[in-house]
Structure formats: structure tokens, C-alpha cells
Amino acid sequence: MRLIASDIDGTILGHDGRISPRTVAAFRDAADAGIDIVFVTGRPPRWLDPIREQIGHTGTVICSNGAVTYSLESESVVASHLLSWETLAEVRARITDLVPEPYFALESLDGFHVEPGFLARDRPANVRDVVPAPLAPSMEDGGIIKMLSILHSGTADEFLELVRPSIGRLIAVTHSAPDMALLEMGPLGVNKAVTLAEYAASKGIEAADVLAFGDMPNDIEMLGWAGAGYAMASGHPDALAAAAMQAPRMVDDGVAQIIEQRLAALHRT
Fold this sequence. Notes:
Number of helices: 8
Largest sheet: 8 strands, mixed
Order of helices and strands: EHEHEEEHEEEHEEHEHEHEH
Structural class: alpha/beta
Helix content: 25-40%
Number of strands: 13
Strand content: 15-25%
């Protein structure tokens, strides 16, 4: 175990926005043991406060499902994979032909752009200040790293199953929303596993020496790539099916339990 890669939401971070003290301590103990820590999330760089403030992580975070590698030490983008407006326009047209009333948003390196109708009335605190406006080609200048599409009915699984055959050769499409029909779309061929593998290789670390945790479909590739991929027992059925191993539920500090066990095994050898 030379590298621990962990998803954030639903894996170590609960709906209350808190990471448990036991989980914080487990990551700190692993770092003190010389193990590299990297967080791998669907979140954009500007939404990393829980990692900064609760764990005190100052290293690398792989954001936006692999589209961005971000340094918390320098507060800067290290690398990024971008989407073209041409691709976004084609994907949007195809989704609009398939489902009634989809709404869209764009994540870029310089902000979050949502069209009218995308946000629900009870919007999360981290988007309450976002002002909806029509999406425009000029937004490509800010470096677009993700497109999102939402339906205000149905489930993400149903939405994904419906549109993936039409758009899957144009854009990487997945989801991490347990209770809304929200799809996340990024550069084709890019996912958490691809960027994590690049990061590990830069450190001279092989997949066999990587411990990974995740809970949703956007974690599937990462869980399959890592030598020890753990899906959370509280996770999505597709993530559980893709992972070779299972960690206890997030509410039971499942990630902390596994890290503690593996650190104890290292100390015995």
C-alpha cells in the first residue's frame, strides 16, 4: 500500500458536510506512515473545502471525474482535459431529442454556468449565488471540463441508460447522484482511473500498490484499476459489482476501518 485514492461524497463525506474524526485520523495516520494520499472526486476545484478544512490535505486532488488535476498546496490547476463547444452542442442536441425538458450546466475552470431551469428551488448552499443564464459558445474560453444535464423527474440510472447509446461515442457520461436524475459528462476517454493512473505513474507507483475507495458509477473504473478497490457497502449496486472488495458503510466509517486494518498489517510485517 503506497497510495490511497478516495472518493469524497458518499464515501467519506456525509450529507451533513462532515467527515468523521475517525476517518480524519485514519488518513493522517496513513500520511504519517509515508503513504501518498490523493482524493478523486466529481467535484470541481472550487468545492474542496471539506478536504482542506477537515482533513488538512495539502496535496493533489483529481477533480471533475478526472478532467482536472489540482494542487491544494499551490491552489492551482496542474493539468486539465477540456471539452469543445462543438461536442457539447452535439451532445445537447441528442439528449434533447431523446428526453423531454432536459436542462444543462457547464463546469469550467473559471466558474459554474447554469441555464434557467437547471437548479431546483431548494438548491444546495454551494450554488445559491449562481445566477442562471443561457449557455453560450464564449464559455469555451474559460476551459470547459464538464457538462451536466438534469431531469426533474426519474432517476439517474434511467436517464443514463436512455442516452448513453446515443452520446457514448462523443463524450464520457456517468453519474454520482443517488437521488436525482443528474448526468455528468466529460472528455471522451477520461475518467477517474485514467488520471489516477497517470498520477501514480508519476510517483513510480503501480496499480497493485494502490488502495481505492468509492461508492457510485463514476468510481467504477477507478475501483477496477486499483490493486485493492473497495466499494462502500452503502454504495450504488454497479459500484459494488465492479469492485473486488467491499468496505463497511460510510456511516460506519468504512474507509477508516479498512485503512486502520491495513496499517496494522503493515506494522506487523
